[in-house]
Amino acid sequence: MGSTVTRPDLDQLRFTSSRTGNWVLEDYLEQAEFGNRTLANLLGDIFNGDGTLKLTGLGTITIENGGTNATTATQALTNLGGTTVGKAVFTAADAAAARTAMEALGTADTINLAVNSSNAVITDDPTNAATHYPTFGSGTSGNRAMKTSSTTLTFKPSVGLMGIGTAHSGSTFAGFDIGTTAGLYQNSGNGAVSVTQNSYYNGTNWIAKTTAAGALYQAGATAGTHNWYSAASVTAGASQSWTTTLALDASGNLTATANVTAYSDERLKKNWRDLPENFLERLAGVKVGVYERVDVAETQVGVSAQSLAKVMPEAVRTDEDSGYLSVAYGNAALAACVALANRVVELEARLNALEAK
């Protein structure tokens, strides 16, 4: 039994032609023409022979909501805020040509990604091939994670030097310039780490960042060593001369060029007690002499901490990790000197009394 085909109402198939007026599809198919164009001609304008869409001759095609709203590569370039090098990429004939254009970017070319009037995601300083200024949001408010500029975040890739809160210095060491004067660097030659105040190394000399005194802490110039230096105030940009103020060698020897002091204010002390009456006699029994250190291979002079602890335990400390004993030599020596002085005074008084008889 055959199927029944219902003829649609002609108004449902009606369309309007700007050239020939109102037609219905049935009439159009029967006459096979449309403004002197056959249906085959019309379809040929829209599709290629393989069925893909043909854009030639269709006029303006607008891409809204996320597109460039442009009809040509040049207009798209303008709408995207592109550069001359960018234009070569946008107008490239194929992907290979676009890649070649990208690889041709020179050190003086400015690269802008996602640029508009208030938000430059990444920009490059075209004035210095060795300096790059990454920018995350050029404004100071709104939806921007970080604001940077040539004076707040800079990077010198040739040595691995970054400026934080400042343009980086002329240091030849990798590291950081922090703020106006601070610095943290590593010497690529000997591996020494330097922490500086108002100073950087230019490959030949230490240079003052500002007109002020300088300070330098350096670790590892020789394995296990730590050194502290100071420099007098000089003109900004002038070379500095360092004076060692404190040095700690790999054996643990600490050398200071000035006095080493500790708080000894009586207002910080209580519960005073006299030394034992036989203190000096007992002190005379402490083991003392010249000896060889077995841990650092040095010849030294001193006392046995174990022996001194029996007489003056307050001057002996025990390391919690190793269990080794150490001596507060300054405290012990001064206490012994005072006790000895008291004994001398006592003996002199007795002698004077005998002589007076």
Write out key terms for the chains shown.
two-stranded antiparallel ribbon, alpha+beta, 357 residues, 20% strand
Discrete helix count: 8
The radius of gyration over CA amounts to 44 Å
| SS strand fraction | 15-25%
Would you list the SSEs in sequence order as H and E? EEHHHHHEEEEEEEEEEEHEEHEEH
Structural class: alpha+beta
* Estimated helix fraction: 10-25%
**How many β-strand runs?**
17
Q: Tell me the distance between the termini.
A: 162 Å
Neighbour order of strands in the largest sheet: 3-4-5-6-7-10-11-12-13
Low-confidence sequence ranges: 10-26, 58-66, 107-127, 132-148
Overall pLDDT score: 75
For the sheet with most strands, the description reads: 9 strands, mixed
Q: What gross morphology would you assign?
A: elongated
In short:
By secondary structure, the chain is of the alpha+beta class. It has eight helices and 17 strands. Among the domains are: 37 residues, no CATH class; 106 residues, no CATH class; 83 residues, Winged helix-like DNA-binding domain superfamily/Winged helix DNA-binding domain (Arc Repressor Mutant, subunit A, Orthogonal Bundle).
